[in-house]
């Protein structure tokens, strides 16, 4: 086994199509993959099962689900008593959907950085994507660039002039259709990914932002969407 | 009540002397204080009781203790099966004490940023200090500066060209003796703060890095240390 094969990566894995694709890309680059998910009180519990399945079936050597109390302070329609809005509805005063979870990706990357440091990994993959874009501030290229500045200073090895941990967002500039084509070529089973913010009896609602983006993505990619929907 | 009195701040509160002083400084500036602590599996459980007492006695309007699984991936003598080393012992390969918890402050600030955003606060206080310094990479001014770059991009309001959340480390350039003098002038009860990494029956060990720094600090400040020690 060469040095390349032994490089470790921490992959943030939500259970949705983007992070599943990021995991497939990491595996394809020869990384030894450590998958990281979070139970942050999200209403969509199915995505945690999806993450476990994807980690296992795609050869991650370990999968952690870290319980974190993001729902303690609320602030998102994904975690508090508000209903999950239909796509396009219910923007906040800053023009961002109500499904935005304050500092979610920031918290996720912080944990990934800590696990990477503990493992001796120098790479974190996140499936953030700025095309066909949710409007979330923490999915943009300048946000990831700022994280890399911080990561250089935040870890023991990086701060000692050694190799820093790099935060990579390999899907950043891909369209959703390109993501699906890439993932299919790498063997991602999109039928096992969960995108819906509020599934009902295991069926995607087809109406929330995340469903609407996904449906559009599969249409553009020219493949049938294997996910089951409430209204076909 | 003026506008100044209604500004909110999230104060990271460990229960030690630095964060207690940061809370006192925030209160003294007229902020409405929201105190945030974490149960990350630290062996020193006393510090969480201390944090609750300090938040309550120093007028924080709310105190959250967020359980987070930092101990899941280990990597520190403060959370895993290793004993807490005596001061000066057991440095890692990067010259940093074994008590360093990978990405701890990074995770803490990420949560504070999310709570600040939810509250409509624009300030986070952290008691990080680079003088009489632990050697931890995540306590340095350049680290806090990088966080402020990230925070400008990470929140909905900041990313929309509005007011970002500012991460402030008001103790950064104070010596430990200056911190104690400042806190005493602001009414901090240092007898209720817990610095020891591994107290025994409520008594500080007097030998770990944190105890040694504290003992030195009180000696330099010219005040008796009100904390109880195993060996007086």
Count of DSSP-assigned helices of chain A: 8
Looking at CATH, the homologous superfamily of chain A is HUPs
What Rg of chain A do the Cα atoms give? 17 Å
Tell me the strand percentage band of chain A. 5-15%
* Average pLDDT number of chain A: 88
Going by helix content, strand content and strand pairing, the class of chain A is alpha/beta
The H/E string of chain A reads HEHEHEHEHHEHH
Main sheet: strand order of chain A? 3-2-1-4-5
Provide the helix percentage of chain A.
Answer: 25-40%
Report on the biggest sheet of chain A: 5 strands, parallel
Q: Uncertain segments of chain A of ≥5 residues (pLDDT<50)? A: none
Q: What is the architecture of chain A at the second tier of CATH?
A: 3-Layer(aba) Sandwich
The name CATH uses for the topology of chain A is Rossmann fold
Q: Which pair of protein chains has the largest interface, and what are the residue counts?
A: A-B, 50 and 50 residues
- How many strands in all of chain A? 5
What is the C-level CATH assignment of chain A?
Answer: Alpha Beta
End-to-end separation of chain A in angstroms reads 47 Å
Quaternary structure = homodimer
Outline of chain A, from the CA principal axes?
globular
Summary of the model, kept short:
The structure is a homodimer of 232-residue chains. Chain A is 37% helix and 11% strand. In chain A, strands 3-2-1-4-5 form a five-stranded parallel β-sheet, sandwiched between helices.
Features of the shown structure:
11% strand, homodimer, 232 residues, alpha/beta, 5-stranded parallel sheet, 8 helices, Rossmann fold, 37% helix
């Amino acid at each position: 086994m060469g040095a390349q094969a032994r490089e470790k990566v921490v992959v943030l894995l939500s259970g949705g199509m983007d992070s599943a694709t990021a995991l497939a890309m990491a595996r394809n680059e020869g990384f030894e993959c450590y998958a990281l998910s979070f139970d942050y009180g999200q209403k969509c519990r199915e995505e945690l099962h999806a993450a476990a399945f994807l980690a296992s079936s795609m050869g991650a050597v370990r999968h952690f689900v870290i319980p974190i109390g993001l729902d303690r302070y609320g602030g998102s329609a994904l975690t508090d008593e508000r209903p999950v809005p239909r796509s396009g509805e219910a923007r906040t005063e800053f023009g961002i959907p109500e499904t935005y979870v304050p500092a979610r990706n920031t918290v996720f990357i912080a944990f990934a950085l800590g696990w990477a440091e503990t493992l001796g990994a120098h790479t974190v993959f996140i499936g953030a994507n700025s095309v066909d874009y949710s409007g979330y501030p923490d999915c943009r290229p300048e946000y990831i660039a700022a994280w890399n500045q911080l990561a250089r200073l935040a870890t023991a090895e990086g701060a000692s002039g050694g190799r820093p941990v790099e935060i990579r967002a390999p899907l950043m500039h891909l369209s959703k259709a390109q993501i699906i084509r890439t993932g299919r070529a790498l063997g991602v089973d999109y039928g096992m990914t969960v995108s819906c913010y509020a599934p009902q009896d295991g069926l995607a609602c087809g109406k929330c932002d995340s469903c609407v983006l996904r449906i559009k993505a599969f249409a553009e990619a020219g493949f049938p969407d294997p996910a089951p929907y409430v209204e076909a």
